[in-house]
């Protein structure tokens, strides 16, 4: 567990550890949202930085994502070369694998390079009924 300890930024997403904690309300269906408005990665071709506003929603079952480990995992992309689509989907799939939520979605709202913003969306399946899941409400690019 990284919480409560000095922890260096992982060298890569593969080296990052995602900690989870027991869900004290596993009997209730509820949505958890993490927002990362300053996500960065590198273009795998040019090495130039790419920036995104990520919105991650999930409905936990037995486990919660520990937020410090999530922050370090997302930060590990800072020097990682991958296209927008790869980063967004890889984050979702890793969290699905590590924490096994009932449902997960991620919106990757990428800032433009070359004049074209690329927004990437992933959802693990239909949202369960009866759970309030707010809209992500990140507007289309207009100088975000």
SSE diagram, text form:
Blueprint: E1 20-22, E2 32-42, E3 49-59, E4 63-65, H1 67-75, H2 84-99, E5 103-110, E6 119-123
Antiparallel strand pairs: 1-4, 2-3, 3-5, 5-6
Structural class: alpha+beta
Could you give the order of strands across the largest sheet? 2-3-5-6
Number of strands: 6
Order of helices and strands: EEEEHHEE
Shape: globular
Amino-to-carboxy terminus distance: 36 Å
Number of H/I helices: 2
Low-confidence stretches: none
Strand content range: 25-35%
Q: Main β-sheet: number of strands, strand sense, barrel status?
A: 4 strands, antiparallel
> Which value, in Å, is the CA radius of gyration?
15 Å
Summarize the structure in words.
The protein is α+β, with helices and mostly antiparallel strands and 144 residues long. It has two helices and six strands. A four-stranded antiparallel beta sheet has the order 2-3-5-6, covered by helices on one side. A two-stranded antiparallel sheet has the order 1-4. The longest helix is centred in the middle third of the chain and has 16 residues. The radius of gyration is 15 Å and the shape is globular. The N and C termini lie far apart (36 Å). The relative contact order is 0.22.
